[in-house]
Design goal:
370 residues; alpha+beta; 2 domains; four-stranded antiparallel beta sheet; three-stranded antiparallel beta sheet
Length: 370
């Protein structure tokens, strides 16, 4: 049975092995150069005052190989569709099971042998590609400052191995139940996308209880989370008033994350949500003269432009206003120290779901298809 399974899938395995070898050679050939570029330009850029140019040059390096990150992201779905979906469905659709199930090999051994070999191959291909890309991309990942940034969590380290196992198990189950290859492949893709979306939105953020931080609202840097460690995964960012009611999101004063204000001629600062701070802007800030025009007026004075003092100190006035009104920022987040615990949890959950799906497939073959 092992030899038969190998003969049936040797073409797919050889293609996957060849692709991995080619990718590995390219990454090994270019990886040291990427590390050298980071060490010689980005690492000392603060002392040379050229960090924007250094980071831009690094981000543009080997742009084609950087696209392997998205490949790692979609590879599990491809494995589930083309390896898991047809595994049983094609046999049932073509009728070869009528011969296979009347031989000395039992249905259990027939299915378990196929699932184990193809499943291990799926996990190995996804894991090797993920680990190679993780190693190669380490200098680029330093630029983001967070292991959770830019969706890197889903395409780095060991999590893609679990996703490949999950997609493969889903494909086997879909093929066993549907018994048609193309519908099974389509169902695998749709189901995998749905499961991954549910995991990202509702499961992973709450595997560990999120940390909650309440800080003063910073009008000069809306959305900033004071007291939140660098590299944290921000789950929610809300703005609340003195009564604790949510009035905005993402550093803004409305649901869209917008932050705005207006200064009246009397010095009252009016925030975009309607709250105001009377006479918080001093008269000297409203009537300071500017070169090229008279200095009377408020925040908008036609061709003369706003008063210089108001322009230079408006952030201070707004911060004083939001402090007086008791406006605060509430953030929930997962700290960067939970990156590896979350990686292991994702792997464990995915493997458990994959095992359950394979178990259901075995039961279906032995009982429902008897």
């Amino acid at each position: 049975m092992l030899w038969l399974t190998y003969r049936l899938f040797r073409v797919q395995w050889l293609i996957a092995l060849g692709a991995l070898v080619a990718v590995g050679v390219a990454l090994v050939a270019t990886g040291p150069g990427l590390v050298h570029l980071y060490d010689t330009t980005v690492a000392p850029c603060a002392a040379h005052h050229d960090c924007p140019a250094a980071t831009t040059a690094l981000a543009a390096k080997d742009h084609l190989l950087q696209q392997l990150g998205p490949v790692v992201l979609v590879l599990p779905a491809v494995v589930g569709m083309f390896w898991g979906g047809p595994l049983v469905a094609r046999e049932l659709e073509t009728g070869t099971t009528k011969l296979a199930w009347t031989q000395s090999v039992s249905r259990l051994r027939w299915l378990v042998t196929k699932v184990v070999l193809l499943g291990l191959a799926s996990v190995a291909v996804a894991g090797l590609l993920s680990l190679m890309v993780t190693w190669w991309s380490s200098p680029l990942d330093h630029l983001t400052g967070s292991p959770f940034a830019q969706g890197n969590f889903d395409r780095r380290d060991i999590a893609p191995m679990g996703y490949a196992a999950l997609a493969f198990g889903l494909g086997v189950f879909a093929g066993t139940v549907i018994r048609r290859t193309l519908p099974a492949m389509a169902s695998t893709l749709v189901g995998f996308i749905a499961v991954r979306f549910a995991d990202y939105e509702w499961i992973r953020p709450h595997i560990f209880a999120p940390v909650r931080a309440v800080t003063a609202f910073n009008a000069q840097n809306p959305g900033a989370g004071g007291g939140v460690p660098g590299g944290a995964w921000i789950l929610t960012n809300q703005t609340i008033n003195a009564a604790g009611r949510v009035i905005g999101a993402n550093g803004g004063l409305d649901a869209g994350g917008n932050f705005g204000f207006n200064v009246t001629n009397s010095g009252t600062l009016v925030l975009s949500d309607g709250q105001s701070c009377p006479s918080i802007v001093p008269a000297s800030a409203l009537h300071a003269r500017l070169p090229g025009g008279p200095g009377a007026g408020a925040a908008s004075r036609g061709a003369g432009g706003p008063p210089r003092d108001l322009v230079e100190n408006i952030g201070t006035y707004v911060n004083e206003c939001v402090h007086r009104l008791g406006i605060r920022t509430v953030l929930t987040y997962q700290p960067p120290s939970r990156y590896w615990p979350l990686q292991w949890c994702e792997l464990g959950i995915s493997l458990a779901v994959a095992a359950a799906l394979v178990g259901l497939s075995i039961w279906w073959v032995r009982r429902r298809l008897a």
